Amino acid sequence: MTSASGEQLGIMPTKEALRLAEEQHLDLVEVAPKAKPPVCRIMDFGKYRYEQQKREKEAKKKQKVITIKEVKLRPNIEQHDFDVKLKNALRFVQEGNKVKVTIMFRGREMSHPELGKEVLKRVAEQMKDLVSIERDAKLEGRNMIMILAPKAPAKAPKGSTKGGEQ
Predict the structure, then answer these.
(1) What architecture is domain 68-150?
(2) Residue ranges of the domains in the chain?
(3) Contact status, residue 70 vs residue 102, Cβ threshold 8 Å
(4) What is the pLDDT of residues 122-154, one digit of tens each?
(5) What pTM, to 2 d.p., does this model score?
(6) Helix 113-126 vs helix 79-94: crossing angle, to nearest 10
(7) Of 79, 142, 137, 135, which Cα lies nearest the Cα of 106?
(8) Is the per-residue pLDDT at 166 higher than 50?
(9) Residue 148, beta-bridge partner list
């Protein structure tokens, strides 16, 4: 058993340990119940729980939630429309999100899936510096889908400085 200050108090009966904890107006907390004999600690459990919740909240703040954003295209899309959709996809990637590029086929367009594949290749080619293809183009029903994920930023070698200054 350890005290609130961290010093070892040794093996003692449970009743005596509870009495010691009450004298100090603290709690007796079982740290390792499976150990022989079980390990206990005298501490302010309320304060411990509060600090633990604070740490969890701080860790949650630092997490980055990655979402999948979708860009929908058609197989016979005009150049300007393609550029606008590409600009949106680039913005999504720069925000750290994955991008699902969908080619929607209608009617007789289904007989030429290679046109959709060409459009997806153009998207991948234009964005090759920023993304890696997570899932290649695949036809699912009347839609052809490709998923792009942002590439991990390249780490600078140790000893180098930002901005090229020495």
Answers:
(1) 2-Layer Sandwich (3.30)
(2) 1-45, 68-150
(3) yes
(4) 998 988 888 888 889 888 899 999 999 988 765
(5) 0.56
(6) 50
(7) 142
(8) no
(9) 99, 133
